[in-house]
Design a protein that fits this description.
Blueprint: E1 2-4, E2 9-11, H1 15-18, E3 23-27, E4 33-37, E5 42-44, E6 53-55, E7 62-64, E8 73-80, E9 87-96, E10 105-112, E11 115-121, E12 130-135, E13 138-139, E14 148-153, E15 161-168, E16 171-180, E17 184-187, E18 194-198, E19 203-206, H2 210-215, E20 221-227, E21 236-242, E22 251-252, E23 256-259, E24 264-267, E25 276-283, E26 288-298, E27 305-314, E28 319-327, E29 335-340, E30 344-345, E31 355-360, E32 369-375, E33 378-384
Parallel strand pairs: 1-9, 18-26
Antiparallel strand pairs: 2-7, 3-4, 3-8, 4-5, 6-7, 8-9, 10-11, 11-14, 12-13, 12-15, 15-16, 16-17, 19-24, 20-21, 20-25, 21-22, 23-24, 25-26, 27-28, 28-31, 29-30, 29-32, 32-33
Organism: Fukomys damarensis
Keywords: Glycoprotein, Membrane, Signal
GO biological process, one term: lymphocyte activation
């Protein structure tokens, strides 16, 4: 079985092996027990798995949560019946980290006239990783499938881009680098600056830098394109403009406005489909200058609401334990923060979690607890009196308070 770090896995034997068994043991190695059970009880040993495992009493399957690379091993299930020998099954589990994001590194070996000798590299510290390089015409020969690639660029045989794909048994990532004639590096779109904007509003994207500004007087044509990912080799044209001669072939896609005076692109009433990587090319007689920007759009968050997920009443001391969920009806990529009125931060089960665990007593009757929901473009807060939930029906759900 092959799994990615952080995922869950179920180790299960055939039903035939488990028929009429009376005792079973799961082993992490040949001598380290994880869990043992019989018809009367189930016992978990004090190992690194103790809070990450669950046994299915019916099938004998072992569920392991949040697996780590160190969990890779040959697991053994050993079962027995009365008056019979033990039987066992072995299951090999291999856990791998997912391939990380990476950027192709370039090194100019030498440049002779219009010929460039370059070294491209995309190595990551993962011995299980495999590498495939792609050019304009598809994958390069298998003998070139390694972390480094030496390329010779000439005006006759130059590939417009090279893509490195890195894969391991659980994931795959790639990066693409572009070349402009004669020996200009167009760069990776993963290095584009990011513009964060609110969904639904008009957006103005700057498409310029110092180098682009210097090239304006020499340029003949402007081309603006969009792609949905930095790896896309096909881009959709948004705008084209001839600077020397305003002809009928100039084009602006509906919903966009181009401002030549400051080289910016206006988007009217932004929608999710407007997200992506925008690139602008300034074309001269023999050179092309490029600039890119990534647009991310986020929906504004709504006012938070809460719901009681679990309530435990302790009659002997008058306390009440609550599990509270804070949610919003609108907003994406939302992070949550809990605090007590007065500014005290309250820890949640995980950073930015919408859940809160609290044990309250009568002394907390007048306390208000604040849930703040936020994303990169907005933030909303709401205060709640949670003691009132200790004596009411938790199924009632939302409980707005005094904010």
């Amino acid at each position: 079985i092959t799994k990615a770090t952080g995922s869950n896995v179920t180790l299960q034997s055939s039903k035939k092996l488990l028929d009429n068994f009376t005792h079973g043991t799961w082993f992490y190695t040949t001598n380290q027990k994880i869990m043992e059970w019989d018809p009367k009880e189930v016992y978990s040993f004090n190992t690194k798995f103790k809070h990450r495992i669950r046994l299915d009493n019916q099938s004998g399957a072992l569920h392991i949560y949040n697996v780590q690379k160190s969990d890779s091993s040959t697991y053994i299930l050993r079962v027995s019946k009365e008056d019979e020998d033990e039987r066992e099954i072995k299951i090999i589990l291999k856990v791998f980290d997912t391939v990380p994001e990476f950027v192709i590194k370039t090194e100019m070996i030498k440049e002779v006239g219009d010929i460039c000798y370059m070294n491209l590299s995309c190595k990551i510290p993962d011995p299980s990783a495999g590498y495939i390089w792609y050019g304009d015409s598809g994958p390069l020969p298998k003998e070139l499938h390694r972390s480094e690639l030496e390329v010779t660029l000439t005006p006759q045989n130059q590939s417009k881009f090279y893509t490195c794909q890195i894969s391991n048994p659980v994931s795959s990532k790639n990066d693409t680098i572009y070349f402009l004639p004669p020996c200009t590096l167009g760069g990776s779109q993963k290095n584009c600056p990011v513009s964060v904007q609110q969904l639904g509003r008009n957006v103005l994207l700057p498409l310029t830098d110092e180098q682009i500004n210097k090239s304006m007087n020499k340029s003949n044509r402007i081309l603006v394109m969009i792609s949905k990912s930095p790896e896309d080799s096909v881009k959709r044209k948004i705008m084209s403009l001839s600077l020397r001669e305003r002809s009928s072939s100039d084009y602006v896609e509906r919903g966009y406005q181009f401002h030549l005076e400051n080289l910016s692109l206006g988007i009217l009433g932004s929608r999710k489909e407007h997200e992506g990587w925008y690139s602008m090319n300034l074309e001269e007689n023999v050179q092309i200058h490029s600039f890119c920007v990534q647009l991310k759009l986020y929906e504004q968050v709504s006012t938070p609401e809460i719901q009681v997920l679990n309530r435990t009443q302790e009659s002997h001391n008058g306390t009440c334990s609550l599990t509270i969920a804070c949610t919003v009806q609108q907003g994406d990529h939302v992070a949550y923060n809990w605090s007590e009125e007065g500014g005290t931060h309250l820890p949640s089960p995980a950073n930015s979690s919408h859940l809160l665990f609290l044990t309250l007593g009568p002394q907390h009757a007048d306390n208000f607890y604040i849930c703040t929901a936020s994303n990169p473009v907005s933030s909303r807060s709401q205060a709640f009196n949670l003691w009132s939930r200790c004596s009411s029906d938790p199924a009632a759900g939302e409980c707005p308070g005094g904010s």
